[in-house]
Design a protein that fits this description.
Length: 228
């Protein structure tokens, strides 16, 4: 009797399994993929006229953005003075102090990348010389839309224009106040465009902060044997 009950139960399971197998199983909907977005680095530039917040653009200018983040993290710009103010155009700062004495940047120049960034009002861009890949540390704020500084769309990529590596996201009123200061008739690399009262960078904070400096290797101490 027990044996018959076992086979009957087994047969019922087989039939039920067959019935279930004939029912199409609906595939589960794929889980929505949530992209991981890393916040863009920010620079907090404290000047003698107030603080300016710059948000870097690692998408439109990844190399230049990374280069300038490192530049700001070296504190190279602390003590630097704005030396070029052209209302309606740009405000520039770089390697000169309040006495227009230069300091050589601690990093090498960066390759020009201008294919996917534009000079709109509030943009922050890297200055350069005639050589394409000479952008080093001198940078400027666009006081207005400056399409003349963009890359020429008819030229090969990254051969014309100036790289925009970020934008002002707070403290724009500070930049506008700088554009209105009195300028000296002489002095500086652009005579007539330097402020009478120097505008100097007093402190810099970055988010993310600079990486910790590696600790010096600890040498094993050798204990001298005392002579008896």
């Amino acid at each position: 009797m027990i044996r018959r009950t076992f086979f009957a139960t087994l047969a019922g399971l087989v039939i039920a399994g067959t019935a279930l197998a004939q029912t199409p199983v609906q595939p589960a909907a794929p889980a929505a993929v949530v992209p991981i977005v890393t916040p863009a680095p920010k620079i907090f530039l404290n000047t003698s006229m107030g603080e300016i917040e710059i948000t870097l653009d690692p998408v439109g200018a990844p190399k230049t953005s990374a280069h300038m983040l490192k530049m700001f993290q070296t504190n190279h710009f602390i003590g630097a003075s704005f030396f070029r103010i052209e209302p309606g155009f740009i405000i520039q700062i770089g390697d000169l102090d309040a006495q227009f004495k230069g300091r050589y940047p601690p990093l090498s120049p960066v390759e020009l990348e201008t294919a996917t960034n534009k000079h709109a009002k509030g943009a922050v861009a890297l200055a350069r010389g005639d050589a394409l890949n000479s952008g080093h540390s001198s940078f400027y704020f666009d006081l207005a839309d400056n399409p003349s500084l963009n890359a020429d769309p008819k030229a090969p990529p990254n051969t014309t224009g100036y790289a925009v590596f970020g934008r002002v996201t707070a403290g724009w009123e500070v930049v506008e106040a700088m554009a209105k200061v009195e300028r000296a008739p002489t002095g500086g690399p652009f005579p007539g465009k330097a402020p009478v009262v120097p505008i100097v960078v007093t402190a810099i904070r970055t988010d993310p902060p600079p990486p910790p400096k590696p600790k010096p290797a600890v040498k094993s101490a050798i204990k001298a044997k005392k002579k008896r």
